[in-house]
Design goal:
Helices cover about 5% and strands about 40% of the residues. By secondary structure, the chain is mainly beta.
Length: about 210
């Protein structure tokens, strides 16, 4: 179908135009739908990425968050490619976390201590989805040594990125990610895989003068 044709399986991706929250006043899209912007009217407005992840392999994707306010709120993770109710966090096909220290696993949610405390402002989220073992990982550029992980996901199912945004204004931008770009140290988090770049601060000549 045409809707399926809009999905991608690798590389650059954006936000889906078929399945999106009915609250059209809450979200706007820019740059060929690679940016989703939540305005001050956002009330649990969800959107999906058009990156289709299936099979038994490992998939990676990245999202750049810009200016998430203290009073704002966001769910980030993966879900089935379908329509959701506004409260998508209660859906059995959602596996994700929120910036309010909560984890969502197949229709259940629980507080997870301070797992995302301080995840406001601007930063990058890195995702790793291992479909062979049924596990989702997320790291934040604020401290990539902290790993959020959900196990026990249904294996060999098709997933897409899922987000639910509340109380903007702030934005999220879809970015591609490869295995080599998935950070396991803070030094790696400063590297970029596309777009604007600069000169590295870790590896540079010892002749400071």
């Amino acid at each position: 179908s045409q809707a399926q044709a809009s999905l991608v399986t690798s590389g650059a991706w954006g936000f889906d135009s078929k399945y999106v929250s009915n609250h059209s006043q809450g979200l706007t899209f820019e740059k060929n739908r690679s940016i989703c912007r939540s305005n001050k009217n956002a009330q649990y407005d969800w959107c999906l990425g058009n990156l289709s992840m299936s099979g038994s392999g490992v998939h990676y994707f990245r999202v750049d968050v810009s200016n998430l306010p203290d009073q704002g709120w966001m769910i980030f993770g993966v879900g089935a490619y379908k329509h959701y109710a506004d409260a998508s966090y209660s859906d059995p096909d959602l596996w994700a976390w929120s910036t309010k220290n909560q984890q969502y696993t197949g229709g259940y949610h629980a507080d997870r201590g301070k797992c995302t405390t301080g995840w406001y402002g601007s930063y990058t989220l890195y995702f790793k989805l291992d479909l062979g073992v049924g596990a989702l990982e997320c790291r934040c550029s604020k401290d990539v040594s902290k790993v959020l992980r959900i196990d026990g996901m249904p294996k060999y199912k098709t997933w897409v990125p899922h987000f639910n945004l509340y109380a903007g204004p702030f934005s999220i931008e879809a970015k591609p990610l490869t295995a080599s770009g998935y950070p396991v140290s803070q030094a790696q988090a400063s590297l970029v895989t596309s777009g604007a770049w600069g000169f590295d601060s870790k590896y540079v000549s010892n002749h400071s003068q």
